[in-house]
Amino acid sequence: MGFEPQVVGVLDAMPSSNLKPENEDEELDAKKMYRTTYMFSATMPPAVERLARKYLRNPVVVTIGTAGKATDLISQHVIMTKESEKSSRLHRLLDELGDKTAIVFVNTKKNADMVAKNLDKNGYRVTTLHGGKSQEQREISLEGFRTKRYNDLVATDVAGRGIDIPDLAHVINYDLPGNIEMYTHRIGRTGRAGKTGVATTFLTLGDTDVFYDLMQMLIQSNSSVPPELANHEASKFKPGTIPDRPPRRNDTVFAH
Q: SUPFAM superfamilies attached here (predicted)?
């Protein structure tokens, strides 16, 4: 969401005169009150780690759950498909859900409007949430979704973090995000507060950059891995790494 400048501004404005001393004897002086700083983050990417190192001294780190891992309460499903088949597959999934709620994630504002328009045309009660909407429009969409005026919310990653929808039954990745961290954030909208949830992802050959990380995520959560994903070359090595090459003595050289 890009709040780092605001966080830095707040931290820079805080006085340093009441910092807890390094000397334990001074710290035991009951007449003084010292500042204690708590920093909370859903994940710990490098940018957040840099902030913590800059503003905290010898911090204690508390991790709830497993960092970067989806909760076991979420049943993850991956469907290999073609771009042209996504719309019909989405209709079938939503029909199976009936009156239950679903967030349909896409990667762009344009696609959010297109998918929502198609769903509305076909009789689904749908609203949208993306960066092209004003704050007031976003709140209206979210309120309508929470109160079940709309069953389906088509959203970009604006809704991927920090938004809590009670009893959300299903998260559908119509478009796979560009990294596994955002995938984890998205599917984490369901399976909350001890309840179970379902996440379904449409996967195409245009998503090969995330194949490796996605397969590792599915394996770690004991979820089914489609054979098309398991057997694809891109799922065997992390992007940017070079697979081990057999020794040159095993090469066959042809001389002419």
A: P-loop containing nucleoside triphosphate hydrolases
pLDDT digits (tens, 9 = 90+) for 210-239: 999 999 999 998 899 999 999 999 999 988
CB 157 within 8 A of CB 105: yes
CATH code of the domain occupying 74-235 = 3.40.50.300
In 81-208, beta strands by DSSP E: 102-105, 126-129, 152-155, 170-173, 197-203
Phi, psi of 235 (to 5 degrees): -85, -5
Tokens of 80: 């290999």
Residue 26, pLDDT above cutoff 70: no
Residue 52's pLDDT is what?
A: 82
Rounded to 5°, the CA angle 201-203-208 comes to 130
* Domain extents in the chain: 17-64, 74-235
Reduced to 3 states (helix: H, G, I; strand: E, B; else coil), residue 198 is strand
Q: What is the pLDDT of residues 108-151, one digit of tens each?
A: 999 999 999 999 999 999 999 999 999 899 999 999 999 999 99
